Amino acid sequence: MDLSASYNKVRQLTEQICSPLQTEDYVVQPIVDVSPPKWHLGHSTWFFETFVLKPHFMGYQQFDPDYNYVFNSYYETIGNRVIRTDRGNLSRPTVADVYRYREYVDNAMDKFLCQEPSAQVAEIMALGLNHEEQHQELLYYDIKYILGHNPLFPPYSKLYQSPPAAISATAFTTIPEGVYAIGFDDEGFCFDNELNRHKVYLNSFEISSALVTNKEYLEFINAGGYHDFRFWHAEGWDWVKNNKIEAPLYWHLIDGQWHNYTYQGLQGIDSGAPVCHVSYYEAYAYASWKGMRLPTEFEWEVAATQFKWGKAWEWTESAYLPYPGFVKAEGAIGEYNGKFMVNQKVLRGASEVTSPGHSRITYRNFFHPHLRWLFSGIRLAR
Fold first, then answer.
1. Which of 57, 92, 131, 292 is the most buried (most CB within 10 A)?
2. What is the dihedral of CA 201, 203, 204, 209, to 10 degrees?
């Protein structure tokens, strides 16, 4: 697929994800971690305007100078921006304005891509497309949080179909001790945090063939797991007590039965489906309760050809740190991953809302340990 076709395909999918929304849904920001869908639409557009069109398309006139302030996310190199907590206060630009902005930039990109771009620009384009695919997944997270915290629990779309979970008896695969190569070493795109490929020594370990299910996690709840400090890190135990956590995000105990919010609305718990929307603290506590642990990201990568993954991102026991020889790029692009390598945990795999073609075995996702609005699950190791 040529670059123009790839661009249009990615851009259309973003708008397709938003198509079931009502205008009011586009502007809500219930917590700091959730950005209004309107902001995602604008920010992903701003990326192409800022890093492709303005520096490389002669004669390009930016859509609105104020949008650099509105839709810059965290790029200090680019200048001042609306702070993250204030994105929900942006009643203007309107949803219609943002869609006009997308159309304006897309038309300019169509003209720009009539000629083959330089290798440098093609590299930025690849980053931009992968960046928008990341925001497509974030859109799914944020839309679910917005609607899932509406007291009426409205469905996102009756047409949304969650891919079926692979139901199989849990077994453990043994991986022998040895020295293994870790990191990206293939054709095509990767993020800078997947480089450089390097070797690690692993002791022999076993890893589960399946993710922990709702039924299995419910056993932890019923056994008083959320009320027993022995299974928790001190920080996790404080988080449980301070936030009165009793179950995964979106779970509700109604008339003695557990339900959870899904894209189809509030439904009974599917006992065979992988548990989802748990924090690292909860994943660690569950593993501790089972007398096991979470895999490291290196163990996960070595073993990942032995099991299916993709229903939910999987918490690992690894801190998000640079690989040997990691070097940040010059300028704003260098702010993409490196500056976040502190106080976060790595997740591996993919989720049911990861965009097509956006997952690979070396992909390193990362989030703070308390977060759980992402599609996050648990795989055990021992």
1. 131
2. -70
